[in-house]
From TrEMBL:
<protein>
    <recommendedName>
        <fullName>Outer membrane protein beta-barrel domain-containing protein</fullName>
    </recommendedName>
</protein>
<keyword id="KW-0732">Signal</keyword>
<feature type="domain" description="Outer membrane protein beta-barrel">
    <location>
        <begin position="446"/>
        <end position="765"/>
    </location>
</feature>
<dbReference type="Pfam" id="PF14905">
    <property type="entry name" value="OMP_b-brl_3"/>
</dbReference>
<feature type="signal peptide">
    <location>
        <begin position="1"/>
        <end position="19"/>
    </location>
</feature>
<dbReference type="InterPro" id="IPR041700">
    <property type="entry name" value="OMP_b-brl_3"/>
</dbReference>
Length: 907
């Protein structure tokens, strides 16, 4: 009897469900050709929450959804090179809904003869790639790519042009998948026109070898790829701007581009002192896309890295060119980039520093006058050869040269917590340096006799050398005064050979295993000489305590296995490498040798789950050792700052980092909602840190050492949410972020625990009306907290606020008005007892001429209220530092801009 009751209940329930469900049928074909589409994507989305209810593909043009629960839905049909079809469905009455034949329209026909009213969906998520459609955003005439990026959800562009996408800084900007104008993203984003872009793609670019094998090697960089419209791939375009202002401000730049399908020729020239172009923070040329992180040596006497980030007044001149083409029916591809840049930065800055000690703390003030110069040449070339249908060879040859001169004049004074002066220092420091670097990368890729059975061999050869010299004149006033007049000379080189081979073998339709073998030879030398000069005679005498010639050789023998599993919904990778490292150190000055060896693991894992075509969750883990550098090992005193001496340690061991990241991204098509979030955590075990000894006169000695009993932590999280408000077609965004560090070091034999946290929440609103206005405003709140275990009562906590309204107003007679305001407030702390606030107001009025707005005259006002002041606060171990500095302030400027383009897509 019980069985019949259960059966009857299930039967009734089934009848109710069937009575409340609907069957949907329909067919899909081409509008003009009446061709039935096979494998067209058909997606049924809930209207209420934009969650995908069901998806299917057409078979000979026909699609069917069975037993669809009654309610409100959106039907979305897409097929390559055709316009997406969108239909709202109300499934409340009938049990069968026959949609009949649905016609899709060819994109080419749409562009030529049809005007469609309505808001275009601006985002698509394709696996690991987020794709934006520029046509969905309201942009002013002749807007640049940077103007477009500022409107994209999940993306921020700061005042210096640096781009952050989905919580990570963008390292590369490609055009049609290739480097364009070398490695400076701002040269592309500030000068390429937005109306030429078909798609903006954002993804984590892997190394070429990793992209081929599908096995993650942990070397990823956030990248933007700009896909050009087909009609813009044959013709010429460019931009010329000449501008002059008061107080000697000027700006001139010219960009010319010739495209003919795969053939691209580009050239640029600029000169300015407004901080607009050619001043990317990415000064250090990246020389290898393979298995080594190869950059210019950083062992100069002066630590200035040759970039401009708003500190001082810049003068910059640069030129460059790019050529790329494909030959022999695409079997041979070539890409060559050359760039030259001269940068001068001069100004003054003021540094306030709090140094936490176990029994007290020291406060110091330092005023610096600086004048720094750099000239840089870089040549990058890529050659890709398709040998046959299953193999290819890629060759990269890169070379660069830097000449650098620096001038720094310091005046400083330090007091203890009782306001007693403990020291004062005047220091003049002048240096010059010449650097050379070159690299050759070879990558052979081969597909074997079975799908996903491959072998790849990569060879990376890198060499850099540097010579630098300097003069240090210092006078320290303490109870035991010290005067220095020294000449300094550095010579160094680094040479790296990296050979890597990867073999992949399919285990099943979805599973693959890979075997990796790596051999690396890394050698380097650092020769430092310091001479004491006699003031009267001018004779110089070698200072043995500050001079040393040190050599380092590292040989890696590394191998491992990785398992990779991939389906439509799931991607999984796990494995590890094991490495044996020979560590040979030679102190040439002391004629002593130290040989050591280390064993390390390189574990990695990755998991990704696709909830739908537009919603993905991924998690990554990788672990790796970080070996001490030759600068940290060399047993010598570095007295470039005589109040802060640095000493190397020949017995340093590697540290080990565990890195975990969690990423989520989703786009709800029906409601145009974009969501992204990420969490990152890094644990550094056995970290290489500074053991600090500071005496009562404020003289500090920093000696590198491993902290075996504690770990350092770095953590961050961010999220972005964007959606249109139902009222008045206003776009709404919420962006939040958190960054933190837990750093440890030893100060006067005590463990110093430093914890730094920064929280930021920003609300944004935007509204646009085509050909009338485009406006937006953001409100941000910032909270900073710093705690130090040596001085627990000095809790440096502060609140900050930032507001950024902006407006583009399109006036009659082809005139436009742009204005933007950036208000920043940073509250006082226990250490720094003054608030900081500034209002930056920039505006311009522009008049366009001719039919296509080719010529523009612009009158602009920078920093209208003349309040721009350089400001930053940061923490490093037991130091809390506040820096204020000169920067570009108010000026007027008159500009003449010519945007030209001529395309012939008929060819």
């Amino acid at each position: 009897m019980k069985f019949y009751i259960i059966f009857f209940g299930l039967f009734c329930n089934s009848c109710i469900v069937l009575a409340q469900s609907v069957k949907i049928i329909g067919s899909v074909q081409d509008t003009s050709k009446n061709l039935k589409f096979n494998q067209a994507s058909v997606v049924l989305v809930k209207s209420k929450d934009s969650i995908i209810y069901a998806d299917t593909r057409t078979v000979n043009g026909i699609f069917t959804f069975q037993n669809v629960v009654k309610g409100q839905y959106h039907l979305i049909i897409s097929y390559p090179k055709y316009v997406d079809f969108f239909l709202s469905l109300n499934l409340e009455k009938d049990s069968l809904m026959d949609l009949g034949t649905i016609n899709l329209m060819d994109e080419a026909i749409l562009l030529n003869s049809v005007v469609v009213k309505g808001k275009k969906l601006g985002i698509k998520i394709r696996g690991d790639t987020t794709e934006y459609d520029p046509a969905a955003y309201n942009l002013r005439p002749n807007a640049t790519v940077e103007d477009l990026l500022k409107q994209l959800q999940g993306m921020q562009v700061d005042r210096n042009g640096n781009i952050t996408a989905q919580g990570k800084q963008v390292r590369r900007v490609l055009v049609d998948g290739e480097e364009f104008f070398g490695n400076d993203p701002t040269l592309v984003t500030k000068n390429l026109r937005a109306d030429m872009i078909d798609k903006v793609q954002v993804f984590d670019k892997k190394s070429d070898q990793s992209a081929f094998t599908g096995i993650n090697d942990g070397k990823e960089s956030k990248t933007i790829n700009l896909k050009l419209k087909k009609e813009n791939k044959i013709g010429n375009f460019g931009r010329v701007e000449l501008a002059a202002g008061n107080f000697g401000f000027y700006q001139g730049q010219g960009f010319y581009n010739h495209f003919h399908n795969d053939k691209k020729i580009a050239a640029y020239l600029f000169s300015n002192n407004t901080g607009i172009v050619g001043l990317s923070r990415r000064d250090r040329q990246q020389y290898s896309d393979g298995g080594v992180e190869a950059t210019y040596n950083t062992f100069d006497i002066d630590s200035w890295n040759g970039s401009y980030g708003g500190k001082g007044i810049p003068n910059s001149t640069g030129l460059g060119g790019q050529f790329s083409n494909k030959f022999n029916e695409g079997k041979l591809s070539m890409n060559i980039n050359y760039s030259y840049n001269h940068l001068n930065v001069s100004g003054n800055d003021f540094i306030e520093r709090q140094e936490n000690l176990p029994a007290l703390y020291l406060l110091s003030n330092s005023v610096r006058k600086f004048d720094n110069n750099q000239q840089r040449n870089n040549l990058n070339s890529d050659l890709k050869i398709i040998l046959d249908t299953s193999s290819s060879l890629a060759i990269k040859i890169n070379a660069g040269q830097i000449s650098r001169k620096t001038f720094n004049d310091f005046r400083s004074e330090a007091r203890d917590s009782s306001e007693n002066i403990v020291n004062s220092n005047s220091r003049l420091f002048k240096t010059s340096a010449d650097k050379y670097a070159g690299a050759t990368d070879l990558l052979y890729l081969k597909k074997l006799d079975r799908e996903r059975r491959t072998i790849s061999i990569g060879l990376n050869i890198f060499h850099t050398t540097s010579t630098s010299s300097g003069t240090l004149i210092s006078n320290i006033e303490t109870e035991t005064p010290t005067d220095l007049n020294q000449l300094k000379y550095n010579k160094d080189y680094t040479s790296i050979i990296n050979l890597k081979s990867v073999y992949t073998e399919p285990l099943s339709k979805s599973a693959t295993i890979s075997a990796t073998l790596i051999w690396i030879h890394n050698s380097g030398a650092l020769n430092r000489e310091t001479f004491d000069q006699e003031q009267n005679s001018g004779n110089k005498l070698l200072n043995n305590s500050l001079s040393n010639n040190y050599h380092l050789e590292q040989v890696f023998e590394r191998g491992g296995l990785n398992y990779y599993f991939s389906t439509k919904k799931i991607r999984l990778q796990a494995g590890t490498d094991f490495a044996h490292i020979n560590f040979n150190q030679k102190n040439v000055s002391m004629n002593s040798f130290l040989k050591r060896e280390f064993y390390n693991f390189y574990p990695s894992a990755e998991f990704a789950y696709n909830f739908s075509a537009m919603e993905t969750l991924s998690m990554k883990y990788n672990g790796y050792p970080t070996l001490p550098s030759i600068e940290q090992l060399q047993p010598i005193i570095n007295n470039n700052d005589p109040l802060n001496l640095i000493i190397g340690n020949i017995n340093l061991d590697p540290s080990f980092s565990n890195n975990v990241s969690l990423n989520y991204i989703a786009f709800k098509q029906a409601n145009n909602i974009f969501i992204s979030g990420n969490v990152n955590l890094s644990q550094i075990k056995n970290p290489i840190s500074a053991v600090v000894t500071t005496d009562l006169e404020g003289l500090s000695i920093y000696e590198y050492n491993n902290l075996s009993t504690v770990s350092n932590l770095r953590y961050s999280a961010s999220f972005s949410f964007g959606a249109p408000l139902k009222i008045s077609d206003i776009s709404f965004t919420v962006d939040g972020s958190m960054e933190g560090n837990r750093l440890n070091n030893i100060v006067n034999s005590r463990l110093s625990k430093n914890q730094l946290n920064m929280y930021k929440l920003t609300l944004g609103f935007g509204k646009a009306k085509k050909n009338f206005y485009n406006c937006g405003v953001s409100f941000g709140v910032i909270y900073n907290s710093n705690k130090n275990s040596l001085q627990p009562l000095l809790r440096n906590e502060s609140w900050g606020y930032q507001t950024r309204p902006n407006l583009d107003f399109y006036l009659p007679f082809k005139m436009s008005l742009h204005t933007e305001v950036d208000y920043l407030f940073q509250g006082k702390t226990t250490s720094f007892t003054s608030d900081f606030s500034r209002v930056l107001w920039n505006t311009y009025l522009q008049k366009d001429f001719f039919k296509n707005n080719e010529l523009s005259i612009k009158v602009s006002l920078n920093d209208a209220l003349n309040q721009n002041r350089g400001f930053e606060r940061y923490i490093t171990q037991n130091l809390v530092i506040q820096n204020t500095y000169d920067t570009i302030k108010r000026y007027f400027m008159l500009s003449c801009i010519w945007n030209f383009k001529k395309f012939n897509s008929a060819k």
